[in-house]
Amino acid sequence: MVQTDQDIRQAVYAAQQDTEAADALIRQYLPFIRAETVRFTHEAIERGHEDALSIAMFAFYESILHYQAGRGAFLPFAARNIRNRLIDQARAERRHRGHLSLHAPVGAEEDGELADTLADPDDAPAALEHRLASRQEIEEFGRKLAGFGLSYSDVADNCPKQARTLAACRRVLAYARANPALLEKLEQTGRLPMQQLADATGVERKTLERHRKYLVAILLAFTNGYEIIRGHLCQLDPRERRDGE
């Protein structure tokens, strides 16, 4: 395994330019990703937290894409990103399913857990049901994306990296969601009416073209009732990054 910070940094930079190198780096650091997941769940991955590991792996990949030298050493940066995504998932579970994870952070500083104050074994069936629903929805949405020639990694790669661009994409999404005929056209043809979107929102067409995959994925999630997926896709927002795209 890569040892020095400089070696890791160079490996990350290479992975930013090559998806095969990124996949190799994820495989290489899978023990690290698993360890960070277990640190959050406080249980072995095999005990029903496979979905958490999937989120952690995605967060690690996102960390590769967004890493810059000014952020310090890569592994602590990736660890923070993994924890943030797992926290987001716990919150999404509570919001969309009404299920409280026993290991969800609580308190003003979020340094405690719900299990510290309440333990209810009756939650186990609900937790299992949610995990199964999550896995089923992820697989189903993956097939939906494939029908449009997209994959999850395509969407992650295509996310806006500047606050200004993200705001522009959100204007486009808001307009599209307010116009059902446009969404129906997307479903029927597999294409976004770029010129219509540009004229209606004032967003440059080249910006729309650049982030087409991201826009299509978000709209597909919102038009097909993928509640869990919607939460994850809307989190694909490098909120801390403000420089070059």
TrEMBL record:
Classification via Gene3D superfamilies: 1.10.1740.10
Keywords attached to this entry: Cytoplasm, DNA-binding, Sigma factor, Stress response, Transcription, Transcription regulation
Chief place where the protein resides: cytoplasm
InterPro entries: RNA_pol_sigma-I (IPR014244), RNA_pol_sigma70_r2 (IPR007627), RNA_pol_sigma_r2 (IPR013325)
Family per similarity comment: Belongs to the sigma-70 factor family. SigI subfamily.
Assembly and oligomerization: Interacts with RsgI.
This protein's name: RNA polymerase sigma factor SigI
Lineage, broadest ranks: Bacteria, Bacillati, Bacillota, Clostridia, Eubacteriales
